[in-house]
Design brief:
Layout (H helix, E strand, L loop, with lengths): L1 E8 L2 E7 L8 E11 L1 H8 L16 E9 L11 E4 L9 H4 L24 E5 L3 E3 L6 H4 L2 H14 L6 E5 L3 H11 L5 E5 L3 H9 L4 E3 L1 H6 L4 E6 L6 H8 E9 L12 H6 L3 E4 L5 H12 L9 E5 L4 H7 L9 E4 L2
Parallel strand pairs: 8-9, 8-11, 9-10, 11-12, 12-13, 14-15
Antiparallel strand pairs: 1-2, 3-4, 3-6, 3-15, 4-5, 5-7
Helix pairs in contact: 4-5, 4-10
Catalytic activity: 2-deoxy-scyllo-inosamine + NAD(+) = 3-amino-2,3-dideoxy-scyllo-inosose + NADH + H(+); 2-deoxy-scyllo-inosamine + NADP(+) = 3-amino-2,3-dideoxy-scyllo-inosose + NADPH + H(+)
Pfam families: ADH_N, ADH_zinc_N
Family: Belongs to the zinc-containing alcohol dehydrogenase family. DOIA dehydrogenase subfamily.
Length: 336
């Protein structure tokens, strides 16, 4: 038997017991070791996620790590026993964008583990074997559960193309921001500043490689001072303010998830400053590979971001912590 959290409809969930899933052709069965809860999971639970990107009832959980325990037809038995993570987007693999390697832009229709497909807030889940990124035999699966947000950050770093000696700013010191600091520190910037209004969060950023921390007022005075700005907060004004931080001819990458009503980017400033602006939603297969390699090489320490762990039975309490505003709350995990 296997347990799973099922969100029947917004605001309503239950823990169900079911037969252990059986992997179909091309699939593997994974025993989940840890699964992270992020703001999008809370949006799903509260019914605030765009209807095109969720299908109820659903078992959430798109950030996870575990061990392969069975394989379906057409999958090599050598995967059994392997520690692993897997991409969440169920890209088609055959459309033009997929064939160009841009799997997060798949035009075959949206499908994602934990939103439209059963996710990892469960003892077990099945995923296509082609989406796996196997880990080292001694990999810390608790830490590896954060490789999904790390892959998003890796996609941002790919788009940003950091160069040694640049002045870089990271806007926001949440999970994405802390992971961004770690990856960007590996590019040996001359300055790696973090913009964060909460002093305690900003202080932690220094532990991960930030060379300075700016509150919003100090950031205002630093406008135009950075070669590269990576926005991770998704707050109403941070897309616009991030562009103002970049120098003329600089680069800005937006990774935060913005809600309707966010402040728009000034097109006059964008044009006159000749900024290069990119946005990131999810991660391509290549970005996943970058994150997994960085984790294996010790360049990422995502486990240090975890502050709370709950069993599946306490999903309600766990999801209430996420986005609750307490600066002491970092990453929240479910541990089946």
């Amino acid at each position: 038997m296997s347990r799973a959290v099922v969100v029947e409809r917004p605001g309503s969930h239950r823990l169900v017991r079911r037969r252990t899933p059986v992997p179909g052709p091309g699939e593997v069965l994974v025993r989940v070791a840890a699964a992270g809860i992020c703001a999008s999971d809370r949006e799903l639970y509260e019914g605030r996620r765009d209807a095109a990107y969720v299908r109820y009832p659903v078992t959430p959980g798109h950030e996870w790590a575990g061990t392969v325990v069975a394989v379906g037809d057409g999958v090599g038995a050598g995967l059994v026993g392997r520690r692993t993570v897997a991409e969440g987007f169920r890209s088609c693999g055959v459309c033009e964008r997929c064939r160009c390697g841009e799997t997060s832009l798949c035009s075959g229709g949206y499908a994602e583990t934990g939103f439209t497909e059963p996710g990892a807030f469960a003892d077990h889940l099945t995923v296509p074997a082609r989406l796996l990124h196997p880990l080292a035999d001694d990999a810390d699966l608790r830490a590896a559960a954060l490789l999904e947000p790390a892959a998003v950050v890796a996609a941002a770093v790919r788009a940003a193309r950091p160069r040694a000696g640049e002045r870089i700013a990271v806007v926001g010191a949440g999970t994405l921001g802390m992971l961004a600091v770690q990856l960007l520190a590996a590019s040996t910037p001359a300055d790696l500043a973090v913009v964060e209004p909460r002093a305690a969060r900003g202080a932690r950023a220094r532990d991960f490689g930030a060379t300075s921390v700016l509150n919003p007022e100090e950031a205002e005075a630093a406008r135009g001072g950075f070669d590269l700005v990576v926005e991770t907060a998704g707050a109403p004004a941070t897309a616009a303010s991030s562009c103002l931080l970049a120098r003329r001819g600089g680069r800005a990458v937006l990774t935060g998830m913005f809600a309707p009503g966010a402040v728009g980017i000034d097109p006059v400033h964008l044009s006159l400053s000749q900024l290069e602006l990119r946005s990131v939603f999810g991660a391509s297969s290549a970005a996943w590979s970058d994150a997994v390699r960085a984790f294996g090489a010790g360049l990422l320490d995502p486990g240090a971001l975890v502050t709370h762990e709950f069993p599946l039975e306490e999903f309600g309490a766990a999801v209430a912590l996420v986005g609750g505003g307490d600066p002491r709350t970092g990453k929240v995990l479910l541990r089946p």
